[in-house]
Amino acid sequence: MCCRFTQRLSWEELHRLADLIGRPRNLAPRYNIAPTSARAETVAEKPMFRTAFKTRRCIIPAWGFYEWTGKVGAKTPHHFLARSGEPLAFAASWEQAKHPDTGEPLTSATIIVGAANNWMNRFHDRQPIILDWRDANAWMRGDDPGALLRSPPEDSLQEWMVSIHVNKAGIGDYDASLVDPIAAVVP
Per its record, what are the GO molecular function terms (predicted)? Predict the structure, then answer.
């Protein structure tokens, strides 16, 4: 799972979902974002993620995410989003380091992925950990964040096939047509 995703939410929409602080950044709609990812089963133990998981948890808001089916060279992309139409809240952690060349602060985030629920398993055996927005504060400040690392309910997502132009990261990043359905898919 490469966990590419889409984000077209405004600061006002995000503020309605969660008690946000700080100034808005990077909120232009994007339709092919390619971040790094981490497995829920090991995020609390692996040295690369352990400290961030304990002290630097965050939520990455998303409108949807992509997954692929088919054989190598003929992959079909699918766009997944909440059946409710509500934005998704990906469980994530963040890290800050110095850029090796410039010494400038470099902030990165990692979306945490876990085992897919039965519905998603038709497409892939992993999926992003999607939090209920009501659990946002518990995720950010809670003592037991591991309790929230679970698959979403079976009926929480919908999907449709989209253009193969999504197949290459960074292509069409600002092109809203990337998420247009190309064919109806029966759930």
Answer: lyase activity; peptidase activity; single-stranded DNA binding
How far lies 83's CA from each of 133, 152, 153, in Å? 15, 12, 11
Give residues with Cβ within 8 angstroms of 85, minimum separation 6. Answer: none
Sequence-distant (6+) residues with CB within 8 A of 94 are 52, 56, 57, 58, 107, 108, 109, 110
pLDDT of amino acid 1: 45
Q: In terms of DSSP H, where are the helices of 72-157? A: 136-141
Give φ, ψ of 120 to 5 degrees.
-70, -25
115-158 pLDDT, tens digit per residue, is 999 999 999 999 999 999 889 889 988 878 889 999 889 999 99
* Cβ-contact 57, 140 below 8 angstroms: yes
Per-domain residue ranges for the chain?
5-179
CA–CA gap between residue 18 and residue 89 (Å, rounded)? 10
Q: How is 40-74 classified by DSSP, letter by letter?
A: TTTTTTSHHHHHHHHH-EEEEEESEEEEEES-TTS
Query: What architecture (CATH level 2) is domain 5-179?
Result: Alpha-Beta Complex (3.90)
Short-list 98, 114, 183, CA closest to 152: 114
Q: For position 110, what pLDDT does the model report? A: 85
Sites in the chain below the pLDDT cut of 50: 1, 37
> What's the CA gap between 33 and 7, in Å, rounded?
8
